[in-house]
Write a structure and sequence with these properties.
about 475 residues, mainly alpha, Hydantoin permease, binds 4-fluoro-L-phenylalanine
């Protein structure tokens, strides 16, 4: 079967793995979602909460997912099953999350394609954000074109996943990811040097503690999961391609750092410009599409920068969307024995169909609300990002910490003068062996990680989750 051949491939190099995993992490979550969530949730307050959750939960779960994946060398469900037969169900929750996320992710990916076309045809060479806002609203609220572009985005994703992913992802990530980084730095420099931009920098970086509510904390939690591709087994799948001599602790640090770096760059590219152009930071999902074109128009060779930006943003979105689709496809290929082609086509078709109401909810169906007064797209996002991903994180941390097992062993030592000393040392469990490559890597923070994954992660996520849902 093609999929199992592909699965047993390994990344060609360490850099290849890091770039591909970072490619899954870095996407619309960083470029589009992070800045508008920060804008809606009090700027610096959101960024601060995001950072706390990133340090306490993000790194911890990243390491847990990669470890489970590399140990099992299987997709998420297979991995849970291999470690504990009765836990296979835990993986299927992630498949549902991936399915839901991709249905609206692809709609936004379609907006990016359409803006790439607009940038290439020079149709937004203006710094008038009211005009740009009108253009954006007119576009997303129309029925036909956004759905068309959503279809184009799904076709690109489907084409790559159907062809097998290794070669493509690894090869292009090496060029496109650094290019994206460079262009983001350029756009950020222009944005923060606009007249009046400092207000926005302050808004983004100074936390106003009165803005921190249960809802803000839940959005930050969901965003950490969404942005790092955690809580749905995606990093389990990517970890399964990682070679046995690579350094898991190091990779688990680097991927979140790259991801956060790009999110901060995007925030600093967009929010200062919002203030400089006298726009509202809580404008929501349109922020990227309204503010950045205005920034481009103020840059030397701005139309070129605009085209380059949307090409790279599209690439970032596609390296994430293929990882979302891959999680679903590998599930039905392995569990239901479908061929890869059939699985990819049928699932993509279903995701496309579910994306249609998401797209229409920006215009003709905007009056339909599902959860907490949210439109269809926002509701699907809420269910997947703020409910299913954190749930997946709670399950994963309990699984790794308690079921797979991380525990201390009593050791009795004799000192030179004959005294008996008892210590409690971290036992050489399968997880610790996997992380340290059988003791070859020094994992100095092992005790900290074990404490975080056993206690802090499940409890902290549960608290944030429950108070955010019921608040
Ligand atoms: N991390 C991606 C982004 O920030 O755009 C989205 C994503 C990809 C979420 C893969 C979850 C996932 F498994």
């Amino acid at each position: 079967m093609q999929s199992s051949e592909i699965k047993r491939d390994q990344w060609g190099s360490k850099l290849g793995f890091i770039l591909a995993a970072a490619g899954s992490a870095v996407g619309l979550g960083n470029l589009w979602k992070f800045p508008f969530l920060a804008g809606q949730n009090g700027g610096g307050a959101f960024v601060l909460v995001y950072f706390i959750i990133l340090f306490v939960v993000g790194f911890t779960l990243m390491m847990a997912e990669i470890t489970v994946g590399r140990y099992a060398q299987l997709n998420a469900i297979g991995a849970y099953r291999k470690i504990r037969e009765s836990w296979a169900w835990a993986g299927s929750l992630g498949v549902l999350a991936g399915f839901l996320i991709l249905s609206f992710y692809s709609v936004i990916g379609g907006w990016i394609i359409s803006y790439l076309v607009k940038a290439a045809s020079g149709s937004f060479n203006t710094a008038d954000v009211q005009l740009l806002g009108g253009m954006f609203n007119e576009f997303i609220s129309s029925a036909g074109m956004p759905i068309f572009y959503h279809g184009v985005f799904m076709l690109i994703t489907l084409g790559i996943v159907m062809g097998g992913i290794q070669n493509g992802i690894e090869k292009y990530s090496k060029i496109m990811m650094p290019a994206l980084f460079i262009i983001m730095v350029l756009v950020m420099i222009r944005s923060v040097t606009l007249d009046g931009a400092m207000e926005g920098v302050k808004f983004f970086l100074t936390p106003d503690f009165s803005k921190i509510t249960g809802g803000v904390i839940l959005s930050a939690l969901g965003q950490v999961f969404f942005s790092l591709s955690l809580g749905m087994g995606c990093m389990i799948t990517y970890g399964s391609y990682l070679s046995k001599d690579e350094n898991i602790p190091q990779s688990s640090m680097i991927i979140p750092l790259i991801d956060t770096g790009v999110a901060l760059l995007a925030g600093l590219a967009i929010l200062p410009a919002v203030f400089a152009f006298g726009f509202s930071p809580n404008a929501g999902p349109g922020l990227l599409f309204i503010t950045l074109p205005a920034v481009f128009s103020k840059m030397p060779m701005g139309s070129l920068v605009g085209v380059a930006f949307f090409i790279l943003a599209l690439f970032a979105a596609v390296t994430s969307s293929i990882s979302l689709l891959e999680v679903c496809v590998s599930y039905v290929v392995d569990e239901w024995n479908w061929t890869r082609k059939k699985a990819t086509l049928i699932i993509s078709g279903m995701i496309f169909a579910l994306g249609i109401p998401c797209s229409l909810s920006q215009g003709p169906w905007s009056h339909i609300t599902l959860i907490k007064g949210k439109n269809i797209l926002d509701s699907v996002d809420f269910i997947a990002t703020n409910i299913l991903l954190p749930l997946g994180g709670i399950i994963l941390s309990i699984f790794v910490g308690w079921v797979w097992g991380l525990y201390k062993e009593q050791r009795i030592h004799k000192t030179e003068d004959g005294k008996t000393v008892i210590t409690w040392d971290l036992a050489y469990t399968d997880a610790i062996k996997e992380i340290t490559n059988d003791g070859k890597i020094n994992f100095a923070l092992a005790h900290v990680w074990v404490f975080l994954i056993k206690w802090v992660a499940p409890i902290a996520i549960s608290i944030v989750f429950l108070q955010g849902i019921f608040a």
